[in-house]
């Protein structure tokens, strides 16, 4: 009897030893990787640690260990000067090169599976309803991230698009109404974030950001009215709402087709003209900086003749749409 019990105990110890050496695979780490410190596989007594891709950080909370997310940061500073400049790789890691039906436009990353752009990039002057846009653009819309030179297309990362969500109150069939010029595009596979690809932050809800200027990046027209092959950026002053409304009202006396400004928009640019966002930049972010974080305050929407004196570039005010953005993203997880 004692011998039998000893045998059972030995079997139990051997069984527990077998269990001990069969370890689980480390959970996958988005935007990072697993580094083994001791041992090469998930074997008994192996030691490993998680490392996030720069500039991301590893959360200390266990439930967030496989996220490695951070928004609004970049590894390279851009100059605090007015004027179009070539953006170095990594300066605007949220920038998306959007190619709807052969046109060049912009968008920006706001999450692993979400990018944001201007609605008019997706609908154009087409009478298509927003519900039919996804089907219409399925084979013609392309989006790329991770590089700053259009001619080096092989260095970009192509995004896999899943669905398009245009604001339900965007109605601009005749090209004279840019109110609610905002759209979200969901991706079918998550973006891998690293130093050259990362999201920009959305503005905090219920907080007006008191800033005087912001930055716009894009692959649009240059001052020579030719499309840029490299990512450019410009720093622009934010213009008081009253000043902007008055400038467009004066122009509208002679050009009645000029769109009206709404509370969902804001203006930026120089009274004397010159540096500005332009065709091909539409949908890119107007970002502002608070502390070390960059926030998407606006979306490049519309304007009159890029850099024209006496008028300004107009941007969709992102803070007005936070409820809609959160609703769309939560309903389409």
From TrEMBL:
Signal peptide from the UniProt entry: 1-24
Entry keyword annotation includes Transmembrane helix: no
CDD domains assigned to the protein according to its UniProt record, in alphabetical order: Tryp_SPc
Record flagged with keyword Disulfide bond: yes
Highest taxon above the source species: Eukaryota
Peptidase S1 domain: residues covered: 81-330
Gene3D superfamilies: Complement Module, domain 1, Trypsin-like serine proteases
Family annotation (PANTHER family): TRYPSIN-3, TRYPSIN-RELATED
Name of the protein this chain belongs to: trypsin
Annotated gene: FAH
